[in-house]
Amino acid sequence: MLGPRQSVWRLQPYARQLIAACAVVSCLLMAGCVRRRLTIRSSPPGAQVFVDNQEIGTTPCSASFVYYGTRSITVMKDGYRTEKIFQKLSPPWYEIPPLDFFNENLNPIETRDERIVDVQLVPEEIVPQQKLLDRAQSLRDNARTGTITPLIGTTVSSNPPAPTSYPGQGLPGSQPLPYEPLPAPPYRP
Q1: In angstroms, rounded to a whole number, what is the distance separating the alpha carbons of residues 138 and 35?
Q2: Can you give the pTM of this predicted structure?
Q3: Is 175 helix (H, G, I), strand (E, B) or coil?
Q4: 182: DSSP letter
Q5: I need a labelling partner for 164 at 20 to 30 A (CA). Which of 35, 65, 112, 183 fits?
């Protein structure tokens, strides 16, 4: 019959192996990760970049991101038209649930997901000074007389559209008016 001290000494080699196995498994579990990077380049370079209204630098520049979705990218440079882009960042196949759990936690290799957005800047239209002054004087005159000035590129009809029905009337045959839902707001994570 073994005493209490002798049984402890027999379990000790197994305990060491168990601790070593746990350490190896935990190292493997912590090894996997995904590095996500968004790079914005412009032609010409040197433009100021905002991603989701946060400045990230001047082009070419990069920023890491955590979540996929639609990003609002604004690129500005003196002498060029400001470009606003809504870039959709779709997840790759290995980031779709439940595969993302295995890729981020059990995969011992670091995965890199790099996205590049190229922006071609257009030179800003230079309006002659006299044309600008004439437009300003026209707006002043219209404001004094109470005339409504339409936006550039829109037409104004002199006859207002006839109402199709009054509230509560509906369509002929007591059918309700067609309902058109509002457009969905842009996605902002």
Answers
A1: 56
A2: 0.54
A3: strand
A4: P
A5: 183
The span from the CA of 102 to the CA of 32, in Å, is: 9
> Does residue 156 have a pLDDT over 70?
no
Write down the pLDDT at residue 10.
58
pLDDT band with cut points at 50, 70 and 90 for residue 73: very high
Helix (H, G, I), strand (E, B) or coil at 70: strand
The two tokens of residue 127 are 């309006």
Token reading at 110: 């670091």
Dihedral angle of Cα 99, 117, 69, 65, to the nearest 10 degrees: 70
Neighbours of 92 (CB within 10 A): 14
Mark 26-37 as b/e (b = at least 16 C-beta within 10 Å): eeeeeebebebe
Alpha-carbon separation of residue 13 from 8, 16, 18 (angstroms): 10, 5, 9
Q: Which residues contact 123 (CB under 8 A, 6 or more apart)?
A: 79, 80, 81
pLDDT digit string, tens, across residues 90-116: 888 877 888 777 777 777 777 888 999
